[in-house]
Design brief:
88 residues
Length: 88
């Protein structure tokens, strides 16, 4: 099973549990916490707050290519993390 499908299936299973929101957010925050600070900021600004790469670059005082690489690093790390533990 490819990583996107595996992650989707894991999230779908999590949504059928009682403590879904807590479990998903806790897992997401754990994975974000493992990222370097600049990659975390670039990902959150770009993918969560819908900022353009140019806006991210201005905020981080880096060029757009470096910020794009940080976002891609974060996306790959989050996708690779996949499901970590069962929700009780």
């Amino acid at each position: 099973m490819d990583p996107i499908t595996r992650t989707y299936e894991w999230l779908r299973r999590q949504l059928s549990t009682r403590h879904t929101v807590d479990a998903v957010w806790a897992g997401f925050l754990d994975v974000l916490d493992e990222l370097p600070a600049e990659a975390r900021v670039a990902f959150l600004m770009s993918d969560i707050f819908d900022a353009s790469i140019d806006e991210v670059a201005l905020l981080l005082r880096k060029d757009a290519a470096a910020c794009h690489a940080l976002v891609e690093l974060a996306r790959a790390h989050i996708q690779a993390a996949g499901p970590r533990r069962a929700v009780e």
